Amino acid sequence: MKHGPNDVTLWQVYSLKSNYWRDLQVEMPNHSRYDGWQDTGYAVHLHGMCHWWGYEDYFGEQMLVSFNLSDDDFVKTPFPLSQNNVKFPKHFVVLKESIAMIEYGHPICFFISILGEFGVAESWTRLFSMVEPIGFGKNGDIFYIKWKRRSGKV
After folding, report:
1. How many whole angstroms separate alpha carbon 86 and alpha carbon 121?
2. Residue 4 pLDDT > 50
3. pLDDT per residue over 104-118, tens digit each?
4. Distance of alpha carbon 105 from alpha carbon 109, whole angstroms
5. Euclidean distance between CA atoms 79 and 90, whole angstroms
6. Rounded Cα gap, residues 125 and 147, in angstroms
7. How many Cβ atoms are within 10 Å of 45's Cβ, its own excluded?
8. Can you tell me the distance from the alpha carbon of 49 to that of 9, in angstroms, rounded to the nearest whole number?
9. Global pTM value
10. Between residues 119 and 10, the one the model is more confident about
11. Apex 85 CA angle, 93 and 47, nearest 5
12. Backbone angles phi, psi at 7, to 5 degrees
């Protein structure tokens, strides 16, 4: 993806075999949180498809944009309505052969959701809501402080 004259988005695919850039004639969201591989977490690759965080316009619907490298097909998967209007930072990872979305909330929390079916907003399933973790162990343990809100005792 690159921006051309008059802010028109041009979609191209590069072939290593032919050393050639091929233009794609597609209608897709022209805004993306993805700006190259240096933005780790905004894009992932799984099963011959590239996936990234996109949106129609800055205040518009947010979505996972997926591109199938074998047939040049795009799929837009909206985020669930509960998550779509919230501008929490989102990162994508591959979790057990599925696309997972990690949202970083405020002040100290994060949410992990997994995608069930491309193109279906309702297929996102929230796996975890982590509130105020204080650390992580080498084997995947998550550490919390146990305290009583009313008394303030740990």
Report:
1. 15
2. no
3. 776 667 788 999 999
4. 5
5. 11
6. 29
7. 12
8. 20
9. 0.71
10. 119
11. 25
12. 60, 35
